[in-house]
Request: fold
Amino acid sequence: MKRPVVGVIGSAHLAENRFPAQRVGERNLMAVADVAGALPLIFAGDPAMTDIDALLDAVDGVLLTGARANVHPTHFGAEEHPSYEPYDQRRDALALRLVQVCVERGVPLFGLCRGFQEMNVAFGGSLHPEIRELPGRMNHRMPRLPTGEIHPDQDVVYGDRHDVRLTPGGVFATLLGREVIRVNSLHGQGILEPGRRIVVEGVAEDGTIEAIRVADAPGFALGAQWHAEYNPDTNPINRALFQAFGAAVAEHSRRR
Reply:
C-alpha cells in the first residue's frame, strides 16, 4: 500500500560556516515516519527552489518545523531589532504563503514552534521577540547551565516545563481527552496578537498562547508552540497529535 507523503520544510543553514544548506531536525522526520505513518519529504524553505503548486501536487500534508531563525518583524508591522535576530527571510517568503494555500485547499497542516508562529503571522497576527519580557511571563527559552551554555542533557532541554490549559470542547481538548497538558518550552518569540481566523485553544499558566487552530479550515490546521516532535514515541500528548495529523494526511491521500 502506498504511504502518504508529508512535506517537511527546511531552513537555511551555513554548514561548516561556508556551505549554504537546507536542514531539518531528524526528530521531525522520525515523528512523521514512525508516528504519523507517512513518508517524510524534505523541501527547501525557499521560493526560488520550491514551487507551492508543484509541492502540493506531490505531498499529502505539510509539517512546518521549529527553527533557529525568527519570522522577520516586517511581516507583522514591527521594526527590526537585534532581539528578533536571526532571520530566514527566504523561508518567510515561502512559508507564509504556503500556510494560506494549504488552508485554502484543505491540505493537512501542522505547525510547531516557528511553524506555529508562521501560521499566526500568515493570517495577520503579530509576535513578540522575547515573551519573557512581558509582565508576568516566565522564561520560555531552553534550559541553560549557570555558565550560559545550553544544558548538555537533551532530556532536560526538552523536558516538560509548564502546563497548558486547553479550551473545553475545543479541537485540542477533544483530541487529547483532557483540558490540561504539560509541555516542553524552547522559544523566546511568541504570539502577541492572534491573527484573523486564528483561534486560541491553549494557554500556558503565564498567559502565553501555546495551541491554535485555523477557523473554518476545511482540513487539519493546528499549531503548537512546543516541540511535539521530540518524543511522540513516549509522550502520549505528542503522540496523539502526530497520530491525528497522520490520520488527516492519510485521508487526504485517499481523497486525492
Q: What stands out?
A: The chain has a mean pLDDT of 93. Residues 5-255 form a domain with the Rossmann fold fold (CATH 3.40.50.880).
